[in-house]
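User: I'm preparing a small set of examples for a lab meeting where we compare how different chains pack in three dimensions. I only have the primary sequence for this one, and I'd like the structure in token form so I can line it up with the others. Please keep the answer compact; I'll paste it straight into my notes.
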Amino acid sequence: MGKELTEYSEMEERILRAALKVVNECTISGTRMHLIADRADMVQSNVHYYYKTKNDLLIALQAYVENEFYRVRLNDRKKAGDDLKDQLDVFFRQKKAMLGKRREFDFAELDFIVQTRINRVIREYFQENFTNWRDEIREIIIRYCPGMPDEDREIIPYLVVSLLEGASIQFTIDPRDFDVDAYMDAAERMVLDRISAVSGK
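Assistant: Understood. Below is the structure token output for the 201-residue chain.
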């Protein structure tokens, strides 16, 4: 957990929260600086003072969203029990919480994933964040299952991230039919069963 949390000024937070709402309402492609300024209840020149272009603001928003994911996860990991199940459970509980009460963060992240096809900076930022995410999971595995074979220790973090991001996609497409709790319980059991099979834990 070596990544640093970013602190935001009151004005930055106000603009980024407004941008998050606009992205959720209009998608990234439909987002305009004047809409963000309106939502933040400020003149557009104030938004441009902090973020010169829409692309600058979107990159800042992506960092803000990822920072929030990390902040929640870091706090939950500090409170979790000192064992494999409790530490891994944090990742699955976080996704449940984001799909429940904080879904605007999760929906924005999905929209940013689409942007990785055309925006190199956003793609590189995602690569870095997904690497950090997998590294967190790998550190847990190394700590609690030191004898796990290298190939399993490397692939399981990819599996966890795919299961969590797959939940976001399915929930976005059909939130009424997708049972988040049942999915997360099954996904976590699957991962723990795999870890147990290859490490004897």
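A couple of notes for your slides: The domain at 8-52 is CATH 1.10.10.60 (Arc Repressor Mutant, subunit A). The chain has a mean pLDDT of 93.

User: Perfect, thanks.
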